[in-house]
Amino acid sequence: MPRVSSPWPINDSERGAASVQALGIIGGSGLTRLQALSIERQEIITTPYGEPSAPLTFGRFDGSPIVFLPRHGPAHTLPPHRVNYRANLWAMKHAGVENVIGMAAVGGITRSMSPGMLVVPDQIIDYTWGREHTLFEVDLPAVTHIDFTRPYCDELREALLRGAHRAGVATHDGGTYGATQGPRLESAAEITRMERDGCDVVGMTGMPEASLARELGLCYACLALSVNWAAGKSEGPITMAEIDRHLADGMQRARRILAVVAAE
């Protein structure tokens, strides 16, 4: 797996006991637990930014070491705008993880992003507001900026695409993720605007997760599953029955990709 240097001062002595070879997985809607995960232990991490969404779960996924965290909490009770993204990513870094895959359920905007399609996005647009979106706020020796030209780690994106190929799972390479505030779904006019902006899929958790990972020096990529057409892209309203149907099937295919990537 790729490794990147970190601009954020977490000393080796501050790290947890996880192997730095372990892959970090942040589960989204439809992935609050990881089937086939042999749990070794769970650890409650206290961070400078409060409590993460759940204790970190350390274990083996098809024999490969991983660290798992459900983004919305163990019972899927945290809405997107209330997720403590800073604590979640800091906890992963503290645990010694260097590579993090963020799972996401999204709505399809462009034609290639039909429900059921898995996608590894390569760009993101942030429409969120009011979220704690940076670690670089206080006690800084100087104002700090990160390069976010390519918001996802190229090496981990390639690992996901290789994993999809080896697992025989059709996966779209590239696309722009539009991150909205939630928890409500979008209006048809908002989706029309987002499509004009160049968005291919819409979700609610992509930011600030991606930028915080970059601030921490984590190699971060997203594996997204289209679970419905976005507002105005199909006849009739969006239903949870449709979303749940695509989640059940799509996350099974996503697990096959994760198993291959974790074994690399």
Keywords:
single chain; 264 residues; alpha/beta; Rossmann fold; eleven-stranded mixed β-sheet; 25% helix; 24% strand; globular
Q: How would you describe this structure to a colleague?
A:
This protein has a single domain, classed as Rossmann fold (3-Layer(aba) Sandwich), CATH 3.40.50.1580. Helix content is 25%, strand content 24%. α2 crosses α5. It is globular, with a radius of gyration of 17 Å. The N terminus is likely disordered.
Q: How is this structure best summarized?
A:
By secondary structure, this protein is an alpha/beta fold.
CATH class: Alpha Beta
By CATH, the topology is Rossmann fold
Mean pLDDT score, rounded?
Answer: 89
Shape: globular
Computed structural class: alpha/beta
User: Helical residue percent?
Assistant: 10-25%
Q: Report the total helices.
A: 5
In the CATH hierarchy, the architecture is: 3-Layer(aba) Sandwich
Please write the string of helix (H) and strand (E) elements: EEEEHEEEHEEHEHEH
Strand content: 15-25%
Q: Please tell me how large the radius of gyration is.
A: 17 Å
Largest sheet: 11 strands, mixed
Uncertain stretches: 1-9, 11-20
**In whole angstroms, how far apart are the ends?**
7 Å
Produce the secondary structure layout:
Layout: E1 23-27, E2 37-43, E3 56-61, E4 64-70, H1 85-94, E5 99-108, E6 118-120, E7 123-126, H2 154-167, E8 171-173, E9 176-179, H3 188-197, E10 201-203, H4 209-215, E11 219-229, H5 240-263
Helix pairs in contact: 2-5
